[in-house]
Amino acid sequence: MSEPSTIRPPSGCAVTIDQVSKRYGSNTVLKSINMAIKPGEFFTLLGPSGCGKTTLLRALAGFHGIDEGRILFNGQDVSRTQPWDRNIGFVFQNYALWPNKTVFDNVAYGLRIRNVPKAEIARRVRDALERVELRNVEARFPGEMSGGMQQRIALARALVIDPPLLLLDEPMSNLDAKLRVSLRRQLRDIQEALGVTAIYVTHDQEEALELSDRVAVMQGGIVQQLGKPEDIYASPSNRFVAEFVGAANLVDGVLREGRFELKGGGRIEVPDAQTDGPATLFVRPEGLRLVDPHVAGVLPGHVASARYVGRAWVHEVQVSDDEILIVDVATRIPNGTPVGLAINAPRFLRAS
Ligand SMILES: Nc1ncnc2c1ncn2[C@@H]1O[C@H](COP(=O)(O)OP(=O)(O)OP(=O)(O)O)[C@@H](O)[C@H]1O
Q: What is the per-residue pLDDT across 103-159, written as a single tens digit (0 to 9) for each?
């Protein structure tokens, strides 16, 4: 093992992932990953099950090694540094609290192994619990507490050592929807107040978009797109990203002289389209408007179905035998009604 190299800058640390690859036998689960995460950034690894996001997070923590590449904290190579010398806070999906230890002992653990004096431990445990808005719970046991409280204790335990880097592996996935939303906000407030760098793993696109400064969308051990939530949502770089980060209409066809001709028939005016040729139209449901089908340049169709999702009625509009587009509308329109579709901001992906 190399000499102890506890990395402890005053606030959030910069994380560089440089050409990192990881194999399990013949299965390469991380393929030359490159990322530069800024100090104090809230950065999310988003992707479906098996894409490699947990493997990457655990490699950052030092829980397992990497086969190629380097991991740098504030410019310092930690690829071979043991987990306890990386000085990171880690929050697990299942909380990983010790059931037979009190809340105090759970939170104090990281300080005790660092030989912090007793009085300071008491103060820092109290401060960490207050930070997650838990008071008078030190003597209780995790099993007596709700899932949301247990996750806040796990967060307090990660933060008590004052880490420059906080790693979180699907920490909300066992909680109900309402609690997830309130905990998200609390987590983001705490992260910003402390200035700690956070790297968060999730398969929940809504969570990723709401929480993050930047998101890396992963699939098959590769980063498909890395950017700000609004850019990834509005301008996905390919079909996978378009479909993974929200509802998407993706329609194959040909661009010709300011019009998009759908493969299955029908056309729509797209005066700003730059190039002609085969293309895939990409538009979110909220980017389509229902208009009079007789207006020139709109795509005619009829309402095939509608379902209520709270914020809107999601309508399916049949525009050809094998093409259905989805559009958000404030009120329900009966099935079979002839409608026209107009596009607010069409974008085109390379043809597939
Ligand atoms: N210890 C291991 N031994 C062998 N293969 C593994 C091991 N851990 C993970 N894998 C494989 O590596 C790939 C990536 O797994 P990983 O857990 O990183 O994905 P993930 O995106 O986090 O998915 P999930 O959300 O389901 O945890 C998967 O194919 C998985 O089966």
A: 999 999 999 999 999 999 999 999 999 999 998 999 999 999 988 899 999 999 999
Give, using CA atoms, the residue closest to atom 22 of ligand 1.
Answer: 54
Say how many Å lie between the CA of residue 55 and the centre of ligand 1.
Answer: 6
Atom of ligand 1 nearest to the CA of 57: 18
Strand-pair partners of 288 = 343
Same domain, 153 and 291: no
177 in the same domain as 316: no
- Ligand 1 closest atom vs CA 64: 1
Residues 251 and 227 in one domain: no
Residue 201 CA: nearest ligand 1 atom is 22
Structural domains of the chain, count = 2
Atom of ligand 1 at shortest distance to CA of 54?
A: 22
Q: State the distance from the centre of ligand 1 to the C-alpha of 125, rounded, in angstroms.
A: 34
Angle of the 103-112 helix axis to the 147-159 helix axis, nearest 10: 20
pLDDT of residue 178: 85
Protein residue closest via CA to atom 1 of ligand 1: 24
| Residue 194: band (very low, low, confident or very high) from pLDDT cuts 50, 70, 90 | very high
**Residue 123: CB atoms within 10 Å:** 12
Alpha carbons 228 and 209: distance in angstroms, whole number? 8
Considering the entire predicted model, what is its pTM?
A: 0.90
Distance, CA 30 to ligand 1 centroid (Å)? 10
Strands 288-291 and 323-329: unpaired
Residue 296 and residue 253 share a domain: yes
Predicted local confidence at residue 75, as pLDDT: 95
Distance separating alpha carbons of residues 278 and 7, to the nearest angstrom = 52
Domain that holds residue 315: 247-350
